[in-house]
């Protein structure tokens, strides 16, 4: 049985922290972010910024501490009864915002909801075969096989009230990428430290502290006003004028100015997110009807070598990113420093590869990018267009806000597109399962789990990689499964179905008197924030 450090301390700590919070001055956090929260439904998307925001409203069975370690949360303890059966015992006297008590039935209904094809969170529960209610506060989760990543995955499955879902016709999850919505997309009923007070899409989302919250709150924030502000200049100006208390991401060109400004603090930590370009490696035709050059590995290598990574890091990212050669950042299980070394930038070699592949005069293709999702995403894409042009490849760039971008990617078949993936589980299995594993609609020889390849829009397929991921999804020996993931990353790097660019940093700016803790998944955990 596991009884975490959080369990032993929660009783006394909760009383101490509650008293401290009451003594502190009630405060309002004004928070500006580059993009909008995609949905209030905690199973509508696996997009990390949306999940991290909703983590202030909803709770999961386990959560991550400030050092990213897994600690007990709604589950006070758990044990592995047998290799495929995990038993979780829930906390007593936990209530949802509308007053319903937390029970094992809520856990079972939530996991069933997250496992539906309509859910955007299938990856987090794909290893679960079924859930059994043992008693009102005990639930068994039975996995298809040994599941080493179960706790990491469950940290992203936020528990919903079964009676509330039934009353509001919300037993089926919404899905942002498929443009599906429902009552849970607009209204919330979690057990978290904050509850939804008001929401005007693309304008503001307001939270207020949950007076009946069961757990510890270290900070003193009573209310939150979240504002999506796409314009970098506007977001910075709002911080400098005192209209906002916290902004992220910080425009990199403004970091020196903000660091030198009295009353402003800039905080930075490495993020677990890798930015990459993916290509249509399977389709015979490009979107414009021309033959698809990207089916040829030589062409893909040419595109890779055309990217001047040093210039991108220096000019576009201004030193707030590290070059990436694989789809796993340092700190993600499976990352290997030996593998994370890029091929040199070499335009002459790139042009020679194009000639060998029969494209001496280059080619034209479509290139889709978001303009409000990742740090300097628009500038990255514009720079890449210029670099590819130097080897005779013409990219037709289309920029879209993320609310439209993600839907378009799923509905269409882009020639090339930019994505960033920070695995919510801090495990490369998640990244590769979603973005590299053979898609289910391609009838893979190895089925790793439901939802595999959902974001593999280039239709890449490598049975050897699939087999390694299948093994890693069930291997309990940490060294063996890390080796399997590293080998999968090596095979992908050799085949070049995607062009890794860099691992970005988390960069926050706060006004004087605001104390906050950024983490590697860029979560703004409001209950950790204090405002003086």
Blueprint (SSEs and pairs):
Blueprint: H1 5-23, E1 27-33, H2 48-54, E2 62-64, E3 70-72, E4 75-82, E5 85-90, H3 104-114, H4 122-125, E6 128-135, E7 138-143, H5 150-154, H6 162-167, H7 183-186, E8 194-200, E9 204-209, E10 221-228, H8 232-240, E11 246-248, H9 255-259, E12 264-279, H10 297-306, H11 309-316, E13 321-323, H12 347-356, E14 363-370, H13 377-389, E15 393-400, H14 402-411, E16 416-421, H15 428-435, H16 463-472, H17 478-495, E17 498-511, E18 514-515, E19 530-531
Parallel strand pairs: 1-10, 1-11, 14-15, 14-16
Antiparallel strand pairs: 2-3, 4-5, 5-7, 6-7, 8-9, 9-10, 11-17, 12-16, 12-17, 13-17, 18-19
Helix pairs in contact: 10-12, 16-17
Features:
4-stranded antiparallel beta sheet, 19 strands, alpha+beta, 2 domains, 11-stranded mixed beta sheet, 17 helices, 532 residues
């Amino acid at each position: 049985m596991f009884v975490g450090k959080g369990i032993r301390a929660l009783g006394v700590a909760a009383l101490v922290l509650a008293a401290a919070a009451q003594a502190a001055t009630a405060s309002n956090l004004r928070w500006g972010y580059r993009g909008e929260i995609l949905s209030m439904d905690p199973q509508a998307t696996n997009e990390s910024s949306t999940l991290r925001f909703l983590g202030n409203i909803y709770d999961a069975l386990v959560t991550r501490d400030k050092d990213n370690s897994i600690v007990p949360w709604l589950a006070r303890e758990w044990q592995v009864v047998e290799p495929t059966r995990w038993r979780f015992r829930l906390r007593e006297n936990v209530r949802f915002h509308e007053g319903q008590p937390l029970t094992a039935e809520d856990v079972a209904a939530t996991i069933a909801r997250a496992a539906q094809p309509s859910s955007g969170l299938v990856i987090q529960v794909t290893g679960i075969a079924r859930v059994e209610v043992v008693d009102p506060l005990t639930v068994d989760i039975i996995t298809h096989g040994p599941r080493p990543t179960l706790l990491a995955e469950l940290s992203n499955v936020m528990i919903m009230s079964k009676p509330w879902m039934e009353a509001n016709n919300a037993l089926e999850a919404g899905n942002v990428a498929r443009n599906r919505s429902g009552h849970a997309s607009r209204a919330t009923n979690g057990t978290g430290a904050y509850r939804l007070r008001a929401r005007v899409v693309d304008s503001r989302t307001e939270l207020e502290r949950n007076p009946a919250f069961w757990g510890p709150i270290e900070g003193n924030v009573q209310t939150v006003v979240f504002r999506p502000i796409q314009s970098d200049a506007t977001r910075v100006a709002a911080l400098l004028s005192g209209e906002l208390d916290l902004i992220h991401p910080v425009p990199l060109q403004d970091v020196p100015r903000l660091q030198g400004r009295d009353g402003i603090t800039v905080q930075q930590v490495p993020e677990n997110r890798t930015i990459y370009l993916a290509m249509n490696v399977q389709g015979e035709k490009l979107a414009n009807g021309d033959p698809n050059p990207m089916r040829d590995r030589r062409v893909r290598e040419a595109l890779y070598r055309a990217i001047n990574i040093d210039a991108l890091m220096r000019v576009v990212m201004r030193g707030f990113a590290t070059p990436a050669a694989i789809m796993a950042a340092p700190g993600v299980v499976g990352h290997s420093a030996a593998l994370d070394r890029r091929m040199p930038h070499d335009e002459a070699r790139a042009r020679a590869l194009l000639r060998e592949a029969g494209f001496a005069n280059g080619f034209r293709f479509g290139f889709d990018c978001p303009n409000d999702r990742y740090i300097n995403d628009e500038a990255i894409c514009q720079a890449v267009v210029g670099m590819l042009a130097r080897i005779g490849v013409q990219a037709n760039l289309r920029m879209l806000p993320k609310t439209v971008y993600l839907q378009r990617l799923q509905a269409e078949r882009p020639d090339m597109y930019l994505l960033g993936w920070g695995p919510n589980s801090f495990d490369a299995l998640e990244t590769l399962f979603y973005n590299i594993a053979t898609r289910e609609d391609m009838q893979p020889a190895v089925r790793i789990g439901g939802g595999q390849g959902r974001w593999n829009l280039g239709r890449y397929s490598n049975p050897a990689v699939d087999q390694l991921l299948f093994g890693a999804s069930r291997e309990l020996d940490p060294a063996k499964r890390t080796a399997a993931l590293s080998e999968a990353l090596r095979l992908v790097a050799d085949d070049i179905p995607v062009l890794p660019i860099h691992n970005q940093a988390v960069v926050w700016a706060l006004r004087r008197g605001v104390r906050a803790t950024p983490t590697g998944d860029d979560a703004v955990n409001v209950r950790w924030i204090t405002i003086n």
